[in-house]
From TrEMBL:
Keywords linked to the UniProt accession: Signal
CDD domains in the record: LysM
Protein name in the entry: LysM domain-containing protein
SMART domains (UniProt xref): LysM (SM00257)
Domain LysM positions: 31-78
Signal peptide: 1-27
Domain of life: Bacteria
Keyword Signal attributed: yes
InterPro entries on file: FecR (IPR006860), LysM (IPR018392), LysM_dom_sf (IPR036779)
Length: 419
């Protein structure tokens, strides 16, 4: 019969087990270490892994080429994590191995083999050990294949990803789609698999494309160029659409874009930071006009606009800042003033001219009132003595706006009660 374990030793072993489990839990949640002067991988391994012997794994996960040359301020990924969820807006999910899908949170660790999924209007940004950033916009799915000291490899399952890749210094940064594999040498680029379009678009640097086929072709896509990765025009380099110009400098609910002659559509993104890692909203429109939702908190945002060409290649971005007003000021409607008069308002900007019309029918015939050149976004009508439904509309007739697809137009109705 084995000898009984002394209580003091049993308690010590239990304490060590709890410390180990706690360390593993912290690491799984995305624990990192910021290098301080004098730090060594040996000491860091002993601090977080309860043994200095795991220093080589930390070196491999963080692509540390010379263990003796840690840089103060450098961020090291721990516990098998190869990336950290740096920013997250909305709901995103992670699947690891055969475990059930679980929600992601800011600061969570990401490991090789993980699958990340963003829901509609959700945005996720990851930071890798070398300082590269990967942005996964809404309605996208991405698998982390390999991240180590030699190779970074992702697989885009659906949707989009945008990467800001640091110079790789001999390492390989690769992204696989269903039809091609992309090799990156330090650049800013997008990869998309959405709406039956698989494409790569290079904002800065170069991307090497190799087909996944029995007789593969290859292509080097340069700055401001893109290529479809499937279809009849696959693996041809095309100039990307120019960065679109935003019209007006102030905003009250609508963003107007200067129309581009060959554009098939436009995309809008709003972010809290100028690097667009903290995305909060995006839209796509076939018209050069976007209406912002009432759910946006008022304040300043960074605005990014892009245009799509006839091939559905997405062009170069134009970035600016924009102020979003409180949601109440972005709505149109009629308010009773209690004396038979009604105050009607609609979104607009300083300097705009509107044509205002009022009628008893939705066809606006005949008109009860018309102001062909109204300056402002608020008008008071009445008093009314005849009960019933009244219809109103206002149309932007500012210089150049009336004949534009982006011209602002608002309409509504109100009910005058019987006395």
């Amino acid at each position: 019969m084995p000898a009984a374990v002394p209580a003091s030793l049993r308690n010590l072993l239990l304490l060590l087990l709890l410390i180990t489990l706690a360390g593993q839990a912290f690491a799984q949640q995305g624990q990192t270490h910021v290098v301080r002067p004098g730090d060594t991988l040996w000491d860091i391994s002993r601090q977080y892994e309860q043994s200095p012997l795991h220093w080589r794994q930390i070196q491999k996960d963080n692509a540390v080429q010379v263990p003796e040359h840690l840089k103060p301020g450098q961020v090291l990924m721990l516990g098998g994590n190869v990336a950290i969820v740096a920013e997250l807006t909305g709901s995103a999910w992670l699947t690891r191995g055969n475990a059930a899908q679980r929600p992601l949170a800011r600061g969570a660790g990401v490991q090789a083999g993980d699958v990340l999924v963003t829901e509609h209007d959700a945005f996720l940004s990851m930071t890798l050990a070398d300082g590269s950033h990967v942005v996964v916009p809404s309605s996208s799915a991405l698998k982390v294949l390999v991240i180590n000291g030699q190779v970074v490899r992702f697989e885009l399952l659906s949707g989009r990803m945008e990467s800001h890749v640091e110079k790789q210094n001999g390492r390989h940064f690769e992204i696989r789609t269903k039809s091609a594999e992309l090799g990156v040498r330090g650049t800013h680029f997008r990869v998309r698999d959405e709406d039956n379009v698989v494409a790569v678009e290079v904002i800065e640097g170069k991307v090497a494309v190799d087909e996944l086929a029995a007789d593969p072709r290859n292509l080097l896509v340069g700055v401001a160029h893109g290529s479809l990765l499937s279809g009849s025009e696959a693996l041809q380099s095309h100039q990307l659409p120019a960065a679109p110009e935003r019209l007006e400098s102030a905003i009250d609910g609508d963003i107007l874009v200067a129309p581009q002659a060959d554009a098939s559509g436009y995309r809008l993104q709003l972010a809290r930071d100028d690097g667009f890692l903290q995305l909060v909203h995006e839209q796509r429109s076939i018209l050069p006009r976007f209406t912002l939702p009432d759910t946006l908190a008022p304040g300043f945002y960074h605005l990014r606009l892009t245009a799509f060409d006839k091939r559905q290649l997405e062009g170069l971005p134009s970035d600016s800042t924009v102020y979003v007003a409180a949601s109440a000021s972005r709505r149109s409607g009629a308010e009773s003033l209690g004396d038979g008069r009604y105050k009607i308002r609609w979104p607009g900007r300083s300097g705009q001219t509107f044509r205002f019309e009022l009628a008893r029918t939705a066809a606006f015939s005949p008109l009860l009132a018309q102001d062909p050149a109204f300056y402002g976004t608020t008008v008071t009508v009445g008093p009314f003595v005849v009960p019933g439904k009244y219809y109103w509309r206002s149309t932007d007739i500012s210089t150049g706006a009336a004949d534009s697809a982006a011209a602002l137009s608002f309409s509504g109705s109100f009910e005058v009660p019987a006395p």
